[in-house]
Each structure stands twice: as structure tokens, then as C-alpha cells.
Specification:
Layout (H helix, E strand, L loop, with lengths): L1 H38 L3 E3 L10 E6 L4 H10 L19 H5 L4 H4 L2 E5 L6 H20 L2 H13 L1
Antiparallel strand pairs: 1-2, 2-3
Helix pairs in contact: 1-5, 2-5
């Protein structure tokens, strides 16, 4: 009986705080999306910019693999995901992103951030400080990026 009462109270509190939580998480998500897209070239926002879960920001970063980003982000204390939850234990491209029409080589650079109640603007700023050098480092090792850069140079 006490657990049932506790669950009811938890639901009551969650409902009372839901709008303010949505507003706060949406603002953090918007900050992350807007600033990440302006700081790193060749990034694709997956999904609608605003019609998404409040704490969800998903991208495909071209010319690098998501798993490599995850390792380097983890070393900096940042938790993120790559691929889909269905394929999280396998190095497979997200079937959702491929169904959206994104090519496999782009889908393999997927990066997903899930924001929660404890995240702050400082957390977002930290990601924005740490991620661009990681992307640069991985692109320097990427044969796809080398090919792209060479082709861009030849066009100029």
C-alpha cells in the first residue's frame, strides 16, 4: 500500500512540474542544436528542429564514425549515444535514419544527446567546447574527409 501511495504522489509531482521541465529542457536542447550546427561544418540535424522530445538532440556528423566520437567524448566525461537503441550493441547504422533517406556513410556518424533534469547550460557549453576538436581530430584521420577535401580543393 505505501508503494502505491508513493507512486501516486510521484505522478502528482511529475504532472505539476511537467510544463516547467519541458520548457527548461527544450531551451537546453535548442541551445545545443543551434550552437553545434553553427560551430561544426557538415553536420545534419536529424528530425525536426522543434517538433521533438524536449531533451532529444540527434545529429549525423559527416566523414567520421559515431563510435569514435563516443569514445573520445566519454574520455571527457560526456555521455552520448550513436546509432539507435535497437542496434546499440552492434556497429550497425540506424535503420530509422536510413529509412529517412540518409546514406549509410552519413548515418554511421550519428550522435545522440539525451538531456535530463540535472543538465545545465554549462553542460551544453562544455559539449560545445569539447566536441569540435574531437570532430577535427577524427576528420584528420578520415579517408572520406581527405577525399572530400581534395575534391573541394580541385573545384576551387
Amino acid at each position: 500500500m505505501p508503494a502505491i501511495v508513493g507512486l501516486g504522489k510521484a505522478a502528482e509531482v511529475a504532472k505539476a512540474e511537467m510544463n516547467s521541465r519541458i520548457e527548461r529542457l527544450s531551451a537546453l536542447r535548442h541551445r545545443l542544436i543551434e550552437r553545434l550546427l553553427s560551430r561544426i561544418e557538415h553536420v545534419i540535424l536529424t528530425g525536426h528542429p522543434t517538433q521533438r522530445l524536449p531533451g532529444h538532440a540527434s545529429f549525423c556528423i559527416e566523414f567520421i564514425e559515431g563510435e569514435s566520437m563516443l569514445i573520445l567524448l566519454s574520455h571527457q566525461g560526456i555521455a552520448a549515444a550513436s546509432g539507435s537503441a535497437c542496434t546499440s550493441r552492434a556497429l550497425k547504422a540506424s535503420h530509422v535514419l536510413t529509412a529517412m533517406g540518409l546514406p549509410h556513410e552519413i548515418v554511421h556518424g550519428s550522435l545522440l544527446f539525451s538531456l535530463g533534469l540535472e543538465n545545465t547550460e554549462e553542460d551544453i557549453d562544455y559539449v560545445l567546447e569539447v566536441l569540435p576538436p574531437i570532430v577535427d581530430r577524427l576528420r584528420q584521420m578520415s579517408p572520406l574527409y581527405a577525399k572530400f577535401s581534395k575534391e573541394q580543393g580541385e573545384r576551387r
